[in-house]
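Let us begin with a simple case.
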Amino acid sequence: MRLGIFSDVHANIEALSAVMEAFRHENIDEYYCLGDVVGYGASPNECADIVRKVAKVTILGNHDAAVAGRMDYSYYYEAARHALDTHARLLTAENLAWLKTLPYKHELNNVGLHLCHGSPVRLEEFEYIFAPEQARECLGIWDELGDLTLIGHSHLCKVFALRPGEVEELPARRFTLRKGWKYVVSVGSVGQPRDYDNRASFTIFDTEKREFEFKRVEYDIESAASKIFAGSLERNFGHRLFIGV
């Protein structure tokens, strides 16, 4: 099977639409979303509607949890809290109810694939993995890890290869899983990339070839940003789309 995996849409319908169109040319069998459908952007309902329709499983992200009343986000900075409060008011009853049901983790054990939003070590704390030091903590749950653990949250494309006592960071490009190693991979962000590449990020895992691939696609940033500027959301949420940070 060819699995289409994406994360951190953040209410950016322009980016999500471009990713879905790009996926159409990749012979995808199943789609999975790693969370944060809402937050930051101007189109929470439009994005939730699409993700609900196409994704076989959607993982709970921290922004999803906040909007759904499943976590305390009082410590978030003011502009982020305002966006979450706004989205909680805008979401339809159906989309809000959907967010309340999302799981912290999903396992496809038949292909050795685990999905979560942040670090798999403490799922409900949504911790980041963007450096080898953070990936190293996963060695403590080695026996619980899948061959491939896919995460979002950092908005970065990162690959960490692990074996007992060792963590190796690899380039974020196409690779084939090696026997005896386990992998923790951050798939980047659809709607708010932060690696200075403003194109939307999405990924593909071929379960038969054991091959993982990063993909990027351009989208209409001008339209996505203009919707943010026209509303009450923090203007920087729109500005940062242009530079991918």
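The second case is a distinct protein. As before, the sequence precedes its structure tokens.
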Amino acid sequence: MNIADMGFIPGRIMEAIVTTYNSDGSPNAAPIGIYPISDTEIQMDIHEPTDTRSNLLRTGVCVVNIVFDPHLFLKCAIIGSGKGEAENEIAKDETISAENVDAPALKEANAWIELKMQTSEEKTKSDMHGEMKFSRVKCIVENITINKKYPIAINRGLFAAIEAAVAKSRGMPVDARHIEIMQRTLSPEEFKKIKELL
């Protein structure tokens, strides 16, 4: 099994929850776009100032968690952003230690990819969100763990939640269209949790 077998194909941007440890050992989680480079190497652009960036530059390792939970994507974008150990996106009991790297993995993930950082380059870009500084991080795959043989079917509400999480992480309001898609396509219980969070 390699990352291409899970849909991580060069040219695509895949969305996942990246987990790291804060300096006090508490878990940190954030939705991040994953750019596959090859079957064994990925790239991430991690904006500053974020806990994920600080943790990854400090430890040199992380875990990419493949999840299909729209609430979790939003929760990790909204709660704890930039607050380090003071406010965690996920509880310690929601994670386990990865096998080959010193980073947490989400217990409920369908699969996870353990990564070791190879290079980090500081960059700046300007777009519709303004000027942003970020670290372009290249990592090599150390281990892949498959937890669920058949992942959950894709749901449009998940993608609307990911777009909402991206907007919130950039300090922008959530688009009403994304809320409408989530309300129409997610279960009432899922949407209720998201509505309370927003």
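The longest helix spans residues 156-169. Helices lie at 51-59, 70-78, 156-169, 176-185, 188-197.
Keep these points in mind for the review questions at the end of the chapter.
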